[in-house]
Amino acid sequence: MSAAVKIPFRATAPVPAVDLTRELAPLGDALKSAFGVSFCFWCNESGEILLPTLQQPGANDPLRGELARAVVGLEPQFVADEDFVLLLAIPFAIQPGITVVAQSAFVVRQPAEGESLAGAAQLLGLEESRTALWIQRQTSWSPEALLRLAAAVQRSIQAETKVKNLEREVEKLSDNLASTYEEICLLHGVTQNLRISADDEKLGGLVLNWLLDCIPAQSLAIHLLPVAEPGETTYRARTSNTLLSAGKCLLTSEQFGQLVSHLQLSAGCGPVVMNHQAIDQPQWPLPQVRQLIIVSLAEGERVFGWLAAFNHADDGEFGTVEASLLNSVAAMMGIHAGNRDLYRQQQEFLASVVRAMTSAIDAKDPYTCGHSDRVARISVRLAKELACDAETLHTLYMAGLLHDIGKIGIDDAVLRKPGKLTPEEFDHIKEHPALGHRILADIQQLAKVLPAVLHHHEQWDGKGYPHKLVADNIPRIARIVAVADAYDAMTSDRPYRKGIEQDRVDQIFRDGAGKQWDPEVVQAYFTARQDVTEICSEERANLTLDVEQWV
Predict the structure, then answer these.
(1) Is the same domain home to 488 and 432?
(2) How far apart (Å, rounded) are the C-alpha atoms in residues 468 and 460?
(3) Which domain, by its residues, includes 527?
(4) What CATH number is attached to the domain comprising 337?
């Protein structure tokens, strides 16, 4: 149905006198990468165009500016509905007080014969004949998919912005390092270990030992708080309190928590320094602690843990020098912890995307449900036999799960046909590696799996597809997935045949080594054959995507 656009009255405000082009261009690139089309940007307050595009009809029409002014809130939404064409608006709060709206038109279905194109033509600013031609050339989306993808892109951009802001904070903090030689050495050591991949516990242990050489304390400790609930993570994450210490440890993890509660500490409280006068009180709960400095490991309002120094080495008093140093170190570690957890959340989001894609493959061809999971696990087992490193194992597992993603684009009648395929149908099936490559090509985090998706049907002798690569020119992960894929395909029941007996499978691999498959990978199969057989005999495992947790 065609819906009239209702635009609420709003007093027009001028566009802020700032040049937004530099900020909007990356947003436009990110949206085009995600949706495959260009977006035009408008000011939500004034309705003025900020960044036009010439790659979509009607994109720069002043009416679109009025539609942009009608956007309320920051959720993706449709601001025009002309039956088979929807106008998607995605708001972004790019600066305080400045909200921009990205707009682009999408086709949600092809018009029926004789159906009026007048509304769509008006929205696009085209004649009806050109509107029909434009609609035919567009990819059809479901409204739900458009909104989900728009929300995901928003979150991704927000996360990237947050990471950049945090990196700037780390750089600013590094410019204010203490002047003494010991402090410079300590802070330099900390900054050298502030890597996203660095483990919080390992970094904390290093920091405590360095601090013990700089702070006149009998004991130092870091009390790390959980960042996730048990059972809710794909990748390793801390799910309980962890206490690290250097020197004579004075407190248990439970006592540290009691200390924080007693002092009523929060993220923005700053360093707390307590010496004899403050501690020698009847209500003090920890008599073994005579002097204390405690600071938060925080990023914004979120606390990741606490860093504390206990008992002055000479039974003296802690002062501002020690407190300042601990506060600087804690601030850096808090930002690092925030970056790590943000990175983990991004990985969790990617894991959700991969699971959704795997489910889509299984839904497309229910008869082979579980095939991708088995191929992924077999690939990892073969890679272990070939002494591949942990990163390659993880890449191979993801590649196995997604190697057939291109079958989403294959006609159901061909994919599920019980009989022998015609040459034309087989040529259609052979398009799925290239289709899969195109589906995943714009997801930067999946770049390493693309060679396996594109080339898992290449053959050692060059008779495979899509590019007829020969021998070592075929990416190694593709050669490994090819053997895993072939094994599961041969041993699984299909609509047109029962699974092949094990002895026959072994003979096929012997005959195909050096012809169809990499002989080294085939040898790895025979070495690990018992494990491979067990993988295919198990029910779907629903294993975590963090391969290191189950290999």
Answers:
(1) yes
(2) 9
(3) 365-549
(4) 3.30.450.40
Q: Are 244 and 222 in contact (CB under 8 A)?
A: yes
Token pair 């004649």: residue: 127
Task: Confirm whether 505 is domain-assigned.
Answer: yes
Q: Which amino acid is at 2?
A: S
Query: How many domains does the structure of the chain reveal?
Result: 3
- Contact by Cβ (8 Å): 254, 260: no
DSSP line for 473-542:
GS-HHHHHHHHHHHHHHHHS-BTTBPPPPHHHHHHHHHHHBTTTB-HHHHHHHHHTHHHHHHHHHSPP--
C-alpha distances in Å from residue 405, one per residue of 147, 479, 482: 22, 18, 15
Q: Name the amino acid, one letter, at 112.
A: A
pTM: 0.50
Would 473 be classed as within a structural domain?
Answer: yes
Cβ atoms < 10 Å from Cβ of 354: 22
Amino acid 141: pLDDT: 94
**pLDDT tens-digit map of 176-194:** 444 444 555 555 556 665 5
Mean pLDDT value of segment 319-348: 83
Tell me if 218 sits within 8 A of 229, measured CB to CB. Answer: no
Residues whose CB falls within 8 Å of the CB of residue 263, separated by 6 or more in sequence, listed in order: 272, 294
> CA 527 to CA 512: how far, in whole Å?
16
Torsion over CA: 26, 30, 32, 33 (sign): positive
Q: What is the rounded CA–CA span in Å between residue 500 and residue 511?
A: 15
- Assign 5 to helix, strand or coil: coil
